Amino acid sequence: MRSTASSCLLGAFRSLKIAPTSTTRPSIIPSAATASRVTAGQQNVRLFSASASMAGNWLEPQLDRKKKMMKGRPRVPTGGSTKGTTVVWGDYGLRMIDHHRRISAQQLKLAEDTIKARLRGQKYRLYKRVCCNVGVFVSGNEIRMGKGKGSFDHWAARVAVNQVVLELRGMIHEQVVRDALRLAGNKLPGQWEFVKKGEPPVVGITKLDGITLEDLKRPRRKVSAETLQPIPPPTEASEGNRTPLDLP
């Protein structure tokens, strides 16, 4: 019995052959074509990142509240810059037209809620062009002068004149968007206007409608004296033809 088993085992070992490359086992190293296909397929795939995503909030920044901030003034671009005066991402926008001011985060949040309530059930997207990154510190009532700046009260944003604050895009009729932005402007301090994408930008308080920046930077043209014409004096009626004002 042992001889039969040993002979069978010896025959099995003799039948085995050692080949330089195995045909049944796949190769671990991929070929050039496979590597190119894998690389082309992973171009549009976001790589894994262990760092947490920073989810920002436009109404409350990630700043230290204990750091005192100056009141400051909004920067009005009067030197030729048109940044923030046109609609960029959306189709319609809400733009300030009267005067620069500081708007609190509570007022901006109320305007956003007003738009969401008016457009409830519609397909749209709202873009915010400002960020409340200015801390407002207030002292209590009936406190003497001095004794520090006060404690933190709320966040605010500096909004310059002719700056777009909110933008909207979606499958909504223009009149409905006008009504929604009108209601939002009523909740905010100041005067606001409805603007559409493609409207001319504004430099300071001058709209570039038919005027270029080169025309604004060009010095004033000198008018020759030959082209000037004197203004004729106004013709006054004689005193005899005038009706007294005290008569009935």
TrEMBL record:
<protein>
    <submittedName>
        <fullName>Uncharacterized protein</fullName>
    </submittedName>
</protein>
